[in-house]
Amino acid sequence: MKVFKFVFFTIITIVLVVVLNSKNGNIPPLGKFLNPMSGFWANSEYTAIKAPEQLALDGLEEPVKIYWDKDLIPHIFAESDHDLYFAEGYTIAFHRLWQMEFQLYKTAGRLSEILGPLTLSLDQQQRRKGLAYSASWMLEEVKKDKAIYEMLQAYSDGVNAYIATLDYKDLPIEYKLLDYEPEPFSPYKICLLLKEMSDQLSSGEADLENTNMVRLLGKDTFNFLFPDRDPGIDPIITAGTKFDFEPLRVANPNDSLPLTKVKQVISKPDPKNGSNNFAVTGSKTASGHVLLANEPDLGLNLPSIWYAAHLHSPSVNVMGAVFPGSPGITIGFTDSIAFGFTNAKRDVADWFYIQFRNDDRDEYLYDGKWLKTQKVIEEITVRGEDTKYDTVIYTHFGPVTYDRNFKGNGEQVNFAFRWTAHDTSNDFRLFYHFNRGKNYNDYLEGLKHYSGPPQNIVYGDVHGNIAMWVQGKFPVKYPEQGKFLMDGRYSKYDWGPFIPQQQNIHELNPARNFVSSANQHPADATYPYYVYDYNYEHYRNRRINDRLKIMQNIKPEDMMKLQNDNYNYLAYENLTFMLDSLDTGKMVARTREVYQLLRKWDYFNDPEKVAPVYFEEWWDQFYALLWDEFDTMSVAAYKPHNYHTSVLMKNNPDLAFADVLGTSRKETIKDVLSITFVSSLDSVESWKGNHSVDLTWANFKNTTIQHLMRLEPFSVTDVQIGGNHGIVNAASRRHGPSWRMVVELDKAGVKAWGVYPGSQTGNPGNPTYADMVTPWATGKYLSLQFTSQQADLAANATLVQTLNPSNK
């Protein structure tokens, strides 16, 4: 009997140990996770920073000092560039290790390894875009550049040095929830991170949707709904700029294009991704110094997409924000220059129809010849299931993303992806030069090495110069080349040469004494190259330029105020017309009250106001009902953008698309406005009935800073902030200013301010987690301590940490 009991309880114990240490669906292994010594309790921190003052690390050459200021920004002082980037990798991993890794799993198409079959389709898509392969090609190019490769390697070694200090109890809580462990970091992964940014910022296109719509609507109707340019645009470079060079030319085939239809397209970058940057000369500022401002508008996530840092070595003194996982500073300033970025809307990704010789897909037709393909078998590990395999065919254009195995239509659809992000490049050189920049020539030198994702790169210096370059690698295109699916069987549709870098759009110290960009058209029609994008911005840029034209004696706080500007240009240009279209004689008390509210509105989407709620809801419902025909299309399509919709609304009262599907009468624009005015009021009333908070714009919009795992307890909801997409303060529900920075380029000492919606720490158990969200929402900035005097930093430091070489 004793033997039986012993065996019985031993088996029970073993079963419990196995069960409690195994992940079950979305439930982490409870035995480990709830362990009071090493489970999630160990992630609770009672102080802002908990780190040893002295630490010995393998890989360092000399001691490195880190001064952590009150905002947990590390000021890293090293005796060599190697130690500087090693310490930077170690420091950022200390706060953001899980984020650094998780975003790379997504880019490489490996999420299924940790999340299971839920993300299998996304992984397949990422691999069919060729992101991991282009990162490998980039790494080979980087290896040819000793200084850059050593920078990436030192940073990776620093990350790995941090990983080496961890055991289970030290792991970020997300590893415990998902039950996996960090992998070694490497220069390849840093290249992969840059490809992730290319995926977010330059892979957007609408070639296949455009092709579908030409097939369905005809070319004339398509051009009517989707013109390349609308009247009234305000380009990045001063309108009327003379371009004094002889452009390259490519032949226009001037014949028909393939009109194969596509029901479903791959996911695209969020169209709300965008940014603002601007700089003014000393002639417009109170101090006489150049002022520069930048804010990239991206997804609002926790941990934040940015990390603030100050890097100092004998060759570097730079501060600003950087993507966790990338060395150096991405947006920032030195003691002489400042630099920032907005996404340059430009079509650098095209699709080509491919004809294979037979089902083996070993060859494809090109100018009457059969060219060999390359087959890559992707092995996708899926947690809890068998490994999945996917064969991706590569042509000289790039990977055949659409085919019989992925979003294709049997053998009818084989589309290859041609994208500048697939080309080899060494874009890290730009940041290497910028981080050491002293003058405009250093800025130019950095630009020469940068191919993408294309960016509008603003510049200012202590010498009084400002500049803007639209920098990237742009193919020379004939009109409408790449706007639609192209026939990959013929070289006449293939890309030719690239625009010489010095012919990229730019301006230095323009007569208007400011430069600015906000994702709009880069130049007017005088630029001698064909320029196209399906998704230019039309409102933020004009508001910024309107303000900068009249602003004088500008102070840094004025630049901050402009970054936080809530003026709704869409409402300013359209609301009066919309209200004038309503029949006030038929209004009841409720509609008349809202009508009067909108009449008196000053067009500012301030967080406490009610009028923006009614306008935004009305516009959204009007837009949806006007273009309801697009919702019934059986193929992939998109709708005309807001600016062109407003042009059509005001100039085409009998627009055919105004006729509402499902009704027997023929509606006009005026009818659609009347219908949606009433229905939008009903929607707002419904919202009021379902919420216990006051009806205000901030409450209605519900801006949310969401944790990457979409866990509500780790997210911040109901952020009290105004603005919206299309407004300078572009804080919509899930997108917005991800880093705001203002710099004053004073020779006596550069001053700067910055803030982002998050915190330096990525640990939800830290008391400072998300502590910058409220300052960010209310337009407040951190004063960035930028000095070479270590004694000053030490005097104000929360913690002074020394990283020592383990062999000394």
Automatic annotation (TrEMBL):
<keyword id="KW-0378">Hydrolase</keyword>
<comment type="similarity">
    <text>Belongs to the peptidase S45 family.</text>
</comment>
<dbReference type="Pfam" id="PF01804">
    <property type="entry name" value="Penicil_amidase"/>
</dbReference>
<dbReference type="InterPro" id="IPR043146">
    <property type="entry name" value="Penicillin_amidase_N_B-knob"/>
</dbReference>
<protein>
    <submittedName>
        <fullName>Penicillin acylase family protein</fullName>
        <ecNumber>3.5.1.-</ecNumber>
    </submittedName>
</protein>
<dbReference type="InterPro" id="IPR029055">
    <property type="entry name" value="Ntn_hydrolases_N"/>
</dbReference>
<dbReference type="InterPro" id="IPR002692">
    <property type="entry name" value="S45"/>
</dbReference>
<keyword id="KW-0865">Zymogen</keyword>
<dbReference type="GO" id="GO:0016787">
    <property type="term" value="F:hydrolase activity"/>
</dbReference>
<dbReference type="InterPro" id="IPR043147">
    <property type="entry name" value="Penicillin_amidase_A-knob"/>
</dbReference>
<dbReference type="InterPro" id="IPR023343">
    <property type="entry name" value="Penicillin_amidase_dom1"/>
</dbReference>
<dbReference type="InterPro" id="IPR014395">
    <property type="entry name" value="Pen/GL7ACA/AHL_acylase"/>
</dbReference>
